[in-house]
Amino acid sequence: MATIQPKKTPIAEQTAELRRVNFNEVCLGYTEEEAVAEAKRCLFCKRPPCVPGCPVEIDIPGFIKCIAERDFLGAIKKLKEKNNLPGICGRVCPQETQCEGPCTLSKKYEPVNIGKLERFAADWEMQNFPQVQAESASKNGKGKKIAVVGSGPAGLTAAADLARMGHNVSLFEALHEPGGVLIYGIPEFRLPKAVLRREVEYVQKLGVDIHTSNIIGVTLSIDDLIGRGFKAIFIGTGAGLPYFLNIPGENLNGVYSANEFLTRVNLMRAYQFPKYGTPIRKGKKVAVIGAGNTAMDAARISLRLGAEEVTIVYRRSFTEMPARIEEIHHAEEEGIQFKLLTAPLAILGNNDGWVVGMRCQQMELGEPDSSGRRRPVPIAGAEFEIEIDTMINAVGQGPNPLLPRYTPGLKVDKYGRIIVDPATFQTTIPYIYAGGDIATGEGTVIAAMGNAKVAARSIDTYLK
Ligand code: FAD
Ligand code: SF4
Predict the structure, then answer these.
(1) What tens digit of pLDDT does each residue of 303-327 get?
(2) Among all ligands shown, which has an atom nearest to the Cα of 110?
(3) 43 CA distance to ligand 2 middle (Å)
(4) Hey, what domains does the chain have and what are their CATH numbers?
(5) Of 30, 143, 218, 423, which one has the fewest beta carbons inside 10 Å?
């Protein structure tokens, strides 16, 4: 047996100096030779622990074996048996806590680079088959009319799976472009729009009709959809409602919610203002509050917009940061500063109403809280001020309240999440199912896709 390379095959990236001034993708992906070398590190375990680590149950050793044998088309076909969005997942999934975490190799060495191999297969198909190929399921007359609301990873997955089952699926999206967080939240340098648009086109080719600029609950109600002949509805409207800090100064000019900041830049192309109509403040000293993926994205965008100093302000320590390890690592390399164990107390403004600083509280870590993470506790008297001209609040987002508000009988919990049966994702209205962040609260792309898949199967069973 050949000796196993203990470390993952290195992958090319733009250098930190170069990429901090452009919006191009940071990671450049594997070449064919590198992908084959990495695939050959896999042990092709008989009972592979990586598979249960994947919420959409990809046959991981199966697709990796194809790559090892240079059957790249076979690899992408195997991936698409379970995953309609491989180019996206290969880029943004937190593999370290999903499939790569339990990989057998990781007991002794670095795990197989499953995510980057998935990305390789998707990119290989994109380069070698520029026309999107998909076989739409035969509509044998048994298919039912199903509406999907929201076009994030949950909505796209539910819609694609239901179309594959032979149903007639219409997907309604409030924004003018489909993708959910994938289009308005995650920046180009992590997920190129071309990759997203190609995978959305794949879902359309499977037979899904996408209707953008349709706010269900406002432009059309659930009753309207039923009146138009839809027999079941899947809701995947996400967690797009920003949480606020509720501290003085949050209404000052130059203070953004991450949601607004990211939407302006990613969806409305504010970085090309005035060519595009949406402006954005290009701060010189930017503070971003929070340490999840949203915070890392906002910080790294600020840098690319020309900020001289960008600081992540987080009330816990490095160990508790919820962002993907790769994003934290890239942010550090690019020169983002980290002010840890620090909580904002007030945002300070000048007489013209613009932000000029922030008063902060030094914290220390106490006992673990209900999330298992050590609770940050203020150190008495340890307050200080920092100078800033822009503040971006990325402390989290809650479920989008719009649709439940206008749909009598659709019950939500105290956090505003639509209540579902965890085994089927059926809501309190029998013909309505819900999945992704609207049902679980802020989560991950792959978790949203995982429960959308279960919901799609349940809808199919319900309709039979
Ligand atoms: P969303 O992606 O939020 O999509 C919901 C869609 O529904 C939106 O398009 C919205 O416009 C639409 N909608 C809402 N209300 C209506 C209505 N009434 N009618 C019609 N349409 C409606 N996860 C990862 O795994 N990896 C990452 O790297 C990562 N980075 C992230 C970065 C940012 C900035 C953010 C905000 C999140 C990130 N996440 C990441 C989390 C991940 O993106 C979400 O968990 C995931 O997108 C949830 O999918 P969803 O389909 O439930 O909702
Ligand atoms: Fe390969 Fe690791 Fe999965 Fe085993 S657990 S099949 S080594 S990727």
Answers:
(1) 999 999 999 999 999 989 999 998 9
(2) 2
(3) 6
(4) 12-128 (1.10.1060.10), 145-240+398-463 (3.50.50.60), 244-395 (3.50.50.60)
(5) 423
